[in-house]
Amino acid sequence: MKLTRTADLWWKNAVVYCLDVETFHDSDGDGHGDFRGLTQKIDHLHNLGVTCVWLMPFFPSPDRDDGYDITDFYGVDPRLGTHGDFVEFVRTARDRGIRVIADLVVNHTSDQHPWFQEARSSKDNPRRDWYVWRDQPPPDAEKGVVFPDKEKSLWELDKKTGQYYLHRFYKHQPDLNVANPEVRDEIARVMGFWMELGLSGFRVDAVPFLLEAPVQDLPDPHDYLCDLRAFLSRRNGEGVLLGEVNLPYTDTMKFFGSADGVGDELNMCFDFIGMQQMYLSLARKDASPLTHALKERPLPPRDCHWATFVRNHDELTLDKLTEPERQEVFAAFGPDPDMQLYGRGLRRRLPSMLDGDLRRIKMVYSLLFALPGTPVLFYGEEVGMTEDLSQEGRLAVRTPMWWDAAREQRHDDDSLLSWIKQLIRAYRDCPELAWGTYELIDTPEPAVLAHRCDIDGGTVIAVHNLGDEEAELDLSSVDGELTDVFTEQPVKPKFTLEPYGCRWLRAWAEGVQVSR
Ligand code: GLC
């Protein structure tokens, strides 16, 4: 059955917006945001055109990794509200046609989680096997440390029981043992619980690490991801798993799964490679790194999609660039060592990296919505929020939402906020972008990225000038009359694109009935 563009595949043209309840809006003036505050601000998200909110962890936590260290997967951090407040938020969002997903952080728990407290109490505790223990750390214990500024090894000695436990991230985040069927059942129960309270799915944290422990009674760890997805779909047919998988394309592809060409693991994977190549392109003012990435990027299986982003809540990782490429991006966008993190990323937001050049910033967001994939925004991007380097590490980009800027920009037609609203409206109005096939169009201008998206006889062409000089475009090879998507005015096939300029064009081929 060939059903496209249905609500079952709603994520294909979703606009995802990631936020942390704690920094979004404070309803009671106690100094940090809360669910009631978020609910009060739902119309900001609705007016922007957001269709899916991704909540960063809101669970009880000692907050040593900004909530990614959880002590109760079934709870709500009392500083943020209650289950009642959570349900009211989800209901209010749904009332505006906005679905809600949340971080599923089950690679590890906090070391304060009662499960770990029990597990570490003795070697024969029934929870012992919920975590991963060894008498000696393996020889490669120091390889792959994620936070090299704080950790030296993936294994930590538990003095009382004399064994080492695995922690992929900080030592206060012991890894759960998903090889244990009880742990797997518990993870399913957690997902079932929040879906019953209204969630439409999850952003799955650190997926490759979650699957790395050998899952004994399954021949392939991917079978576990398959099980999770099947469980989710049984409970909620439109449920979605959006995975954090930062690997080369061919490795990431495995996480979509593929039974007879239809994905059966993650519905969406973030395009970390495309994101990094985009920054390299911006640094060089040359579209080729991004063009090359888009050519190399495999098509996901049916019913799956890439998720695209300009910024997320972590360091802007450049780990998949070569060392000289990374240094180029550092030199262009974060030369000061204080702007860099873990030797591989930047703790800056886009507007400051581009020296506040609004034309250039607008062009980058146009790219985000025009390129194939589901766009994911990080809160504050819509109003041009910048970082605060006086905050520690990644917290530099997780400061409170700029509501004053949102108020100022709302009625200014030239503001970034108005531009992002227009982009979202156009993106939702051009099914070609989300549902269609895409092709890159060759141009002689190295700074220009041009591509077309087609579906059911409809064609949208987008051109982006990543350079600071005018570029001459000739789209005479495209069939049909061209009109500008935003102004609906006719456009001649030969035109000049201003520095950092962009255009979305619709090609009206004669005699073709466009079904929209
Ligand atoms: C993921 C999150 C990051 C967190 C880490 C540990 O990489 O994106 O913010 O610190 O997992 O949970």
TrEMBL record:
For this protein, the record's SMART domains field holds:
Aamy
Domain of life, per UniProt, equals Bacteria
User: Which terms under GO biological process does the entry name?
Assistant: carbohydrate metabolic process
Q: Which residues form the Glycosyl hydrolase family 13 catalytic domain?
A: 18-427
One Pfam match, given by its short name, reads Alpha-amylase
InterPro entries recorded: GH (IPR017853), GH13_cat_dom (IPR006047), Glyco_hydro_b (IPR013780), O16G_dom_2 (IPR045857), SupH-like_C (IPR054049)
Q: What Gene3D superfamilies has UniProt attached to this entry?
A: Glycosidases, Golgi alpha-mannosidase II, Oligo-1,6-glucosidase, Domain 2
What's the protein here called?
A: Trehalose synthase
